[in-house]
Amino acid sequence: MHIRLINPNTSAHMTEAMFQSVRAYAAPGTVLSAVTSAQGPVSIESHFDEAVSVIGVCDEILQGCAEQVDAYILACFGDPGIWAARELTDAPVIGIAQAAFSTAAMLAPRFAVVTSMQRTVIMAHHLLAQYGMASLCCHVGAVDLPVLDLDNGAAVEAIIRHAVQARDQHGAGAIVLGCGGMSHARAEIEAAVEVPVVDGVAAALKLAEMLVMLGLKTGKHGDLAYPLPKTFTGGMSRFSR
Fold this sequence. Notes:
The chain is of the alpha/beta class.
């Protein structure tokens, strides 16, 4: 099977870091590829960033359809454009936030999320509500560091501090890493916090493999049916059908 990791931001070094962090989890026979969006923001840290990134995500899904990719990982914790992506293909599209929430919910009665920027905390709450997980999350905290600054020791120490606080003060039995840029440090964080720490990128990979192996595809009855053919204008004309 061929699973494709899509980084909705345009930072190729972040794409490579996530790919290297999870490639060892791929099952024998799984081909894992990774692509960086060709257009959009260098990082996604606001509603506006998310909105702008969706066109790049859709472009990558359509390219993957042409290459007969079997499943996709949407590797941004906001899961930007996930419903649009699911409309465009019957292959499973797994967002790393939904994957992480679902996995953590199977490991502990209540989990906490440690994310990047403080302004994205409310966005995480929106996702929890959207996926029906709000009652299972006891806390959402932020280290208040930009996404592109999460790949150093000081950032990992900050994540650990917030995770320990969530465990001790909020009763979290598991921690969800609220950014794909934290993927590389999952094992180190878990060793320090001593509760399960879930990286959504790795969780999404394993869920994608499971769905493909079971022969399950995105349902095309209802609102995830393929988009109706229509004309798009301006720079969007490539989406005309």
